[in-house]
Amino acid sequence: MAPSAVPQQDVNLTAAAIQRKEASVANGDGGQKAPLDASKLTYSLTKSPRPVPDQATANAGDETIATDHMVTATWKASTGWGAPELKPYGPLSLMPTASCLHYATECFEGLKVFRGHDGRLRVFRPDRNCARMHMSAGRISLPLFEPAELEKLLVALLAVDGPRWLPADQPGHFLYIRPTLIGTQSQLGVQAPREAMLYIIVTFMPRMDSPPGGMRLHTSPEDMVRAWVGGFGYAKVGANYGPSLMATQDARRRGFHQILWLYGPQGECTEAGASNFFVVWVRKDGKKEIVTAPLDDKLILDGVTRRSCLDIVRERMAGEIEVTERKYTIDELVEADAEGRILESFAAGTAYFICPVSQIHHRGKDINIPMGPEGTAGEVTAKIKTWIGDIMYGREQHEWGVVIPEKEQ
Questions:
Q1: Dihedral (C-alpha) 136, 142, 146, 147: value to the nearest 10 degrees?
Q2: How many independent structural domains does the chain possess?
Q3: Which residues carry this modification: N6-(pyridoxal phosphate)lysine (predicted)?
Q4: CA-CA distance, 350 to 275, in Å (whole number)?
Q5: CA distance 333 to 13
Q6: Cβ atoms within 10 A of the Cβ of 170, count?
Q7: FRET partner for 273 with CA separation of 20 to 30 A, picked from 23, 40, 110, 373?
């Protein structure tokens, strides 16, 4: 059966399965003994700190440059989580038969640490990323953990590496944080792994939020979808990304930045590449609206930036613009374009942050999205980007910006 033809299902089945797994762990039936405990973190600091490159040099090559240290923790079904360790960054040791190399038993997160204009280090809403990683782990039968313990490990690593790799005298920069959980059991066979490893690394990442003239999207091929109802599009697992690269590469060869993924026979708009997708338009009843795909059928990722955009618009633009989470189709965009009702569009995610969209190419025709002066973001997009950026970089004190207590160097 083609993915677009999958019938509507009870999308809460996965949540129920995770709840059952958590209950079995609590009752001692799930095999997970010792919990992940950040208070047991041990420190083995490098004796050979590497030189810190400038941002341009760090992002110029083909290899991602990481900071001096990483955090690792191993898990076994028979004993539970071992003591986490902060140690020098370096290669992992895996057997060729490791579960993650064959059966995609891996999940990850992506978030950033920012050097604020007030000199302080901040992470943006890390509790949301840690909670989502817990959900993703349950979806692919990896060991569970308390999200708060993962957040403590993130903070510990950033407290050590942040001061040197994001100097206080160089505000306005960021590093990328990648917590990852992989199945490591060295046994072939389709089964839930009984051994796993959690690791956290911190790396450089180039800015991608301002391509000249805005992001240009190409709609997905008619015979390809990114996710489907009853699948795992809502979980941050590697299996969501590798299969999308063929369409993305083809779009880039044609001069586009990303794919606008459509779903089903009606062509529902879901995500722009790996980012959430938003449209600001005037509805037929004359009301101004910002619309994005819903979460209830679990087709798309519950993006932290997505959630923040919606929250901040509801709070700060109430009465000016309505916020709607619903299914909407590419044909609705084509119609709105023909009627001159599209005001602006943007993609939102950790990597691209908030990136204005200037064009959507669909079946041989272009939908040209209005932009601000000289190809800048439109009014609503610019406001959202400024508000959230101010929180990230400490220009606005807000509970979403979690300050990292830095260790003296």
A1: -30
A2: 2
A3: 236
A4: 8
A5: 32
A6: 10
A7: 373
Q: Are residues 180 and 234 in the same domain?
A: no
Domain region containing 113:
12-203
Q: What is the pLDDT of residue 304?
A: 97
Of residues 225, 16, 189, the one with CA closest to residue 105? 189
Beta bridge partners of 18: none
Q: Are residues 357 and 326 in the same domain?
A: yes
For 386, counting Cβ atoms within 10 Å of its Cβ (0-12 exposed, 13-18 middle, 19+ buried), the class is middle
Residue at 403 is within a domain: no
Residue with tokens 């101004």: 288
Distances in Å between the alpha carbon of 270 and those of 220, 226, 246, 267? 11, 9, 18, 9
- Together in a domain, 152 and 227: no
Residue 344 tokens read as: 């602006």
Is the CA virtual torsion 194, 45, 177, 406 positive or negative?
positive
Distance CA 68, CA 53 (A): 12
Of 205, 113, 108, residue with least CA distance to 160: 113
The half-sphere exposure of 325 on its side-chain side, counting CA atoms within 13 A, is: 16
Reference 375, options 358, 396, 397, 392; nearest CA is 358
Residue 375 and residue 260 share a domain: yes
Q: Are residue 335 and residue 385 in the same domain, yes or no?
A: yes
| Percentage helix, strand, coil for the chain under 3-state DSSP, each rounded to 5 | 30, 25, 45
Could you tell me if 248 and 312 lie in one domain? yes
pTM to 2 decimals? Answer: 0.92
> Are residues 337 and 287 located together in one domain of the fold?
yes
